[in-house]
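Milestone M4 deliverable, item 7.
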Amino acid sequence: MSMTIHVDIVSAEGEIFSGLVEMVYAPGEMGELGIAPRHAPLLTRLKAGDVRLDLGDGKEMQHYYVSGGMLEVQPHIVTVLADTAVRAADLDEAAARKARQRAEEHLRDAESQIDTAKAQAELAETAAQLRAIDRLRKTKR
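Output delivered:
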């Protein structure tokens, strides 16, 4: 039996995943993080993106979209405190594409720095959702 680490993914809506995995991959603010069992303690911010869980034993990798949040790593537990967390398979590609189009329109029509910043944040979030959908699609092939 290989080594595992307990992972909890939670958001304001509730717990979305709790269980043992062999490896966790998360979109850290400074870059992609890979967390294995007995990893050194760590606390970092997450950016919008795809959290992937390798369950091991030949099982399919699980994908979750997070819109940002915090990642806490202890030697035997990883906690993802997400602003929003959704199973990547539950993301609506058509809705994400429409939201990206609206954000691009808002960016073009922005009248102030606040409008521009809000549109850029919306655009970054929808781009992260579409990347998560694309990554999930590629792993299913």
